[in-house]
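#structure-requests
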Amino acid sequence: MIIAVDFDGTIAQTDFPVIHEEIPDDCEVLRRLHDSGHYLI
């Protein structure tokens, strides 16, 4: 499956153009999806 993910406020706290920190639970889910063979864009 190909999954498109918005970056700002979805997987990271940002104040464009600065990336402050990732949102841990969201990033973990995306890592598991990627490890399962899904494509993230």
